[in-house]
């Protein structure tokens, strides 16, 4: 198990974005529009989640999706079997702890 924290570094996110959408000299557009325009917007962002999220249009590049409650969270515990990882937020871990202690 390890704690995973969603990315707040705009430069890192922009590099990941380019690596994902720019291949063989061509930008592949997202379902919502120009990935190159989004990349340019990311380059202008400060290292703030809300700015990065606004540039992209969702939270998926700066947050983790909790597998327990299906909400985007800033940080989560990753539980892995080596091939697959499950992410759980603090609230879900508290609920799980209460359950295993028989308190729910
Ligand atoms: Zn959760």
Q: Any overview of this molecule?
A:
The chain is α+β, with helices and mostly antiparallel strands. It is 38% helix and 21% strand. The protein has 4 helices and 7 strands. The chain has a 3-stranded antiparallel β-sheet. Strands 2-3 form a two-stranded antiparallel ribbon. The longest helix has 12 residues. It is elongated and about 55 Å long. The two termini are 24 Å apart. Zinc ion binds next to helix 4. The site of zinc ion has 8 residues, from helix 4.
Which shape, going by the Cα principal axes?
Answer: elongated
What spatial order of strands do you see in the largest sheet? 1-6-7
Runs in which pLDDT lies below 50 for 5 or more consecutive residues are none
Helical fraction:
25-40%
Number of DSSP E strands? 7
Residue-averaged pLDDT, rounded? 95
Question: Would you kindly provide a brief summary of this structure?
Answer:
It is built from four helices and seven strands. With 104 residues, it is an alpha+beta fold. The two termini are 24 Å apart.
What tags apply to this protein structure?
104 residues, alpha+beta, 2 domains, two-stranded antiparallel ribbon, 21% strand, binds zinc ion
Helices and strands in order, then pairings?
Elements: E1 2-5, H1 10-21, E2 22-23, E3 26-27, H2 35-43, H3 49-56, E4 64-65, E5 72-73, E6 75-80, E7 85-88, H4 90-100
Antiparallel strand pairs: 1-6, 2-3, 4-5, 6-7
Helix pairs in contact: 1-2, 2-3
The structure holds zinc ion.
């Amino acid at each position: 198990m390890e704690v995973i924290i969603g990315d707040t570094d705009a430069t890192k996110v922009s590099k990941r974005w380019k690596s994902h959408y720019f291949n063989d000299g061509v930008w592949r557009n997202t379902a919502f529009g120009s990935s190159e325009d989004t990349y340019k917007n990311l380059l202008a962002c400060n290292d703030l989640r809300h700015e990065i999220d606004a540039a992209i249009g969702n939270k998926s590049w700066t947050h983790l999706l909790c597998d327990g409650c299906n909400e985007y969270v800033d940080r989560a515990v990753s539980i892995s079997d080596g091939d697959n990882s499950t992410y759980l937020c603090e609230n879900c871990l508290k609920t799980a702890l209460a359950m295993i202690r028989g308190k729910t």
